[in-house]
Specification:
The complex is a heterodimer. Chain A is of the alpha+beta class. Chain A has 3 domains: 112 residues, Butyryl-Coa Dehydrogenase, subunit A, domain 1 (Orthogonal Bundle), CATH 1.10.540.10; 97 residues, Butyryl-CoA Dehydrogenase, subunit A, domain 2, CATH 2.40.110; 153 residues, Butyryl-CoA Dehydrogenase, subunit A, domain 3 (Up-down Bundle). Chain A is built from 11 helices and 10 strands. In chain A, the strands form 3 sheets. In chain A, strands 1-4-5-8 form a 4-stranded mixed sheet, with helices on one face. In chain A, helix 7 runs antiparallel to helix 8. Chain A is globular. The relative contact order of chain B is 0.12. A 4-stranded mixed sheet of chain B has the order 1-4-5-8. A 4-stranded antiparallel sheet of chain B has the order 2-3-7-6, with no helix packed on it. By secondary structure, chain B is α+β, with helices and mostly antiparallel strands. Chain B has 3 domains: 98 residues, Butyryl-Coa Dehydrogenase, subunit A, domain 1 (Orthogonal Bundle); 118 residues, Butyryl-CoA Dehydrogenase, subunit A, domain 2, CATH 2.40.110; 123 residues, Butyryl-CoA Dehydrogenase, subunit A, domain 3 (Up-down Bundle). Chain B is globular, with a radius of gyration of 22 Å. The chains are: A alpha+beta, B alpha+beta.
Chain lengths: 377, 421
């Protein structure tokens, strides 16, 4: 998380933190384990009132940013989500709201996302072997005045709760994005099982789903830049959330190392363990640093933003999961029980590691940025 | 009297004008390695002469010692000004060797503990490029355990007589002054009997020997001090109070390029641009499109950009007091591990040429030698194990390691297997 927050940002972060302290307690997270949605609509509406969904939306569409960058402000919410393993479709709704606002979509629709009365989600990822970034085979064909969607998207966050689906697919060699009401004929949503206690994902199948040309965001076949921007927003949120979960797990484990005695001395006194904590502290600070730097680069539209975001995803994906597993190891047996809270954060970081590209996918993406620079120079 | 601080924009304009008029852009080599012994002594001396010249030009232009007080010839500006200068210097030559250890830790220690006379004599000389400094800290018998120094200083009237040996001084053969930790009292505990001195390196009584590293580099030196006589005015801080100086000295050493005293163009690392270097090796091997090679290139570049972000964060955290000074050990630990990983990746990408190469292998050659030198990145400037101790004990507050030598008179401290009886 940012080292220096403005007074307004700190107030904003603290408001969300206090709201989650009371409304996303571990008992509530455990209760939601068997809830189909993974969050309550009342909780989500109240969170939306705190500004969770308004940060990527233009002022004209009702958006409210705290600082000069709503995306950077949003990382503060995402960080607190990670620190609390909080429920709710934060990434999905924000990316869709931002995309709709950028495309000049219907204000009423955006207003529903902003006030938390409706949920939107982004259908982007596909099944293996097309689960690398940019490997999409989902088809959006133009047929007369209509577009016809065919294919399968998975995993799609909170698809069962979403009123609208933002669908990204191929039209010939280009990318197209359409906004589809979830109730449209030909769409089927099949809930998946997953590792997170409160995040829900589905397989969304599209069989000859017909939508009018007005459903297109931007232009047919020319959505690549929009998709890239949405992807960067999504990755920034995902990374910030993972860092929050890492911080919480690390803090819990440092506490434990001081409290837990074996052979008459605290775990914190063993050099073999102290050095592991030193490495974890380094991974954690490095994750904070690259998460914040990459978010700022996206916010400022810097040319290296894509490279930094992928570097952040590769690093946090790898070391976030390693840090959490180290925290489990340092707890011993209690660390792999349902009773202990560690798994709440392990689940969050594990999910973040693989969504929208595994670390190796992002390392190759970083390499592609490097290659482009070398070929260009 | 309140002096108006120069605005960052005004400073930027001034720095930019100077740089464009006076400094040469560096031609970035596609392949860069921090570990190579790749220049002759003549080339090295020529580079040093040019660096002294640049330092003098910076001084004359009012761009040397940005955060050094005005009364000692500095600019009395802020770390933010130093960052602006670093940004403006991106892609240009700069006095590389004057930075570490001259500006930090040596200049930093002088500013913090030097007498008025010492500061007035040496600080301007450093800022003008007239004095390059080295730290006489490590000894053959103690690397990480620097407070276990055996080099002795004995008082003789107004003078001190030093005897002993120091090691791992980078470039002592072309440097001017040394900052030295010596033992002045053997009857008290190890931290209580140390004193810090300074002296010109080209003195009778100092024999500088160059150490040949396994890759042929002779950058490092060992010095033998034999009845070296220096005046008491060359003492820094109180007699037997050397550890007070020494612990700040080591802090300033760990700060390295995070120090606001250090000028370091953005994007400049000793090892160059990791991604570009790895890409060049992969291309020389005809492997640049191979997914495995791409993953390694991406990993090296990821570690580089994460390392830069971490360095900025730690620097900012320490400057704003959001983090303790000791947090610099976090950056040190990261860099050591990232650089060793990078050496491994380069070696991996070079394939069979890592073991044997010919002149026409171009960018595939030499990586095996770098791999042999790999651990230097986790040893030099304080080992990564020491950094891990500092992070766990000083940053996280975990219990200190047992140190049986702490409370013994130093003379009685076991110093080898045979003396530990």
């Amino acid at each position: 998380m940012l080292l220096e927050l403005s007074a307004e940002q700190e107030f904003f972060r603290d408001t969300t933190a206090r709201f989650l302290d009371s409304n996303a307690q571990v008992a509530e997270l455990r209760r939601l384990r068997d809830d189909a949605a993974g969050f309550t609509s009342d909780y989500w509406r109240r969170g939306a009132e705190l500004g969770w969904t308004s940060l990527l939306v233009s002022e004209a569409d009702g958006g409210v940013a705290i600082s000069s960058s709503g995306l950077v402000d949003l990382t503060l919410v995402a960080y607190e989500f990670g620190r609390h393993a909080a429920p709710g479709p934060l990434l999905a709704t924000n990316v869709v709201a931002g995309a709709l606002s950028a495309a000049g979509a219907d204000k009423e629709l955006i207003a529903g996302l902003l006030n938390g009365s409706s949920i939107g989600t982004w259908c982007i990822s596909e099944a293996a072997p097309y689960d690398g970034l940019g490997d999409m085979v989902f088809e959006i064909a133009v047929r007369g005045d209509e577009l016809v969607l065919n294919g399968v998207k998975r995993p799609v966050e909170s698809a069962s709760e979403a009123s609208h689906l933002l669908v990204t697919g191929r039209t010939g060699d280009g990318l197209t994005q359409v906004l589809v009401p979830a109730a449209t004929r030909g769409i089927s949503v099949l809930p998946m099982r997953g590792v997170d206690l409160t995040k829900r994902f589905s397989v969304v199948r599209f069989d000859d789903v017909r939508v009018p040309a007005a459903a297109v965001l931007g232009r047919v076949g020319e959505a690549a830049a929009d998709v890239e921007r949405q992807l960067l927003h999504a990755l920034v949120i995902l990374n910030a959330e993972a860092v929050g979960a890492m911080q919480r797990a690390f803090d819990m484990t440092v506490e434990w190392a001081f409290d837990r005695y074996s052979f008459g001395r605290p775990l914190a006194s063993y050099q073999a363990l102290k050095h592991r904590f030193a490495h974890m502290a380094t991974w954690l600070q490095a994750s904070h640093a690259i998460s914040d730097d990459s978010a700022r680069a996206v916010a400022e539209g810097r040319p290296e933003a894509g490279e930094l975001v992928s570097a952040a995803k590769a690093y946090i994906g790898e070391y976030g999961a390693e840090l959490l597993q180290e925290c489990v190891q340092l707890h011993g047996g209690i660390g792999v029980t349902f009773e202990h809270d560690m798994h709440l954060f392990l689940r969050r970081v594990t999910t973040a590691r693989v969504l929208l590209g595994t670390p190796d996918v992002h390392r190759r993406r970083v390499a592609d940025f490097v290659a482009r620079k070398q070929v260009a120079s | 009297m309140k002096v108006e601080v120069e605005s960052l924009d005004g400073f930027r304009a001034r720095a930019r004008a100077f740089i464009q008029a006076n400094l040469r852009p560096v031609t970035r080599r596609a392949v860069a390695s921090a570990l190579r012994a790749n220049r002759s002594d003549e080339e090295e001396l020529a580079e040093i002469a040019r660096e002294r010249e640049i330092q003098r030009m910076l001084f004359d232009a009012g761009l040397a010692g940005i955060c050094v007080p005005l009364e000692y010839g500095g600019q009395g500006l802020t770390p933010a000004h130093q960052r602006v200068l670093n940004a403006e210097l991106r892609g240009y030559e700069y006095p590389t060797r004057a930075q570490v250890p001259t500006f930090t830790p040596c200049l930093a220690v002088l500013l913090e503990f030097g007498s008025e006379e010492q500061k007035r004599r040496h600080v301007p000389a450093i800022l003008k490029g007239e004095e390059l400094w080295m730290q006489f800290l490590s000894e053959p018998s103690c690397g990480s355990d620097v407070a276990g120094a055996l080099t002795s200083a004995v008082r003789d009237g107004d003078e001190w007589v030093l005897n002993g040996s120091k090691v791992w001084t980078t470039g002592a053969w072309w440097s001017d002054w040394g900052l030295c930790l010596a033992r002045t009292n053997w009857e008290v505990s190890k931290h209580s009997g140390l004193t810090v001195f300074i002296f010109p390196i080209k003195s009778p009584g100092i024999d500088v020997q160059r150490i040949e590293m396994l890759n042929g580099s002779k950058e490092f030196c060992q010095e033998f001090l034999t009845d070296l006589r220096i005046p008491d005015s060359h003492r820094i801080g109180g007699v037997d109070n050397g550890w007070t100086v020494g612990s700040r000295w080591m802090f300033h050493e760990r700060m390295s390029r995070n120090s606001p005293l250090v000028t370091m163009p953005e994007g400049a690392t000793r090892a160059g641009d990791a991604g570009a270097t790895m890409y060049a090796i992969a291309r020389a091997a005809g492997r640049q499109a191979d997914p495995c090679a791409r993953e390694l290139i991406g990993e090296a570049q990821t570690l580089q950009v994460v390392g830069e972000a971490l360095r900025r964060r730690i620097g900012q955290g320490i400057a704003t007091r959001a983090m303790s000074d000791q947090s610099s050990a976090i950056a040190r630990l990261f860099v050591g591990l990232a650089e060793t990983r990078r050496a491994t990746i380069a070696f991996e990408l070079a394939g069979g040429a890592g073991a044997a190469w010919s002149d026409d292998d171009g960018e595939l050659g030499e990586w095996g030698i770098d791999f042999l030198m790999r651990q230097a990145m986790c040893i030099g400037g304080g080992t990564t194990e020491m950094a891990a101790n500092v992070i766990s004990e000083r940053v996280l507050g975990m219990p200190r390691e047992l140190t049986p030598d702490r409370d013994l008179p130093f003379r009685e401290v076991p110093r080898s297997r045979s003396s530990s009886g």
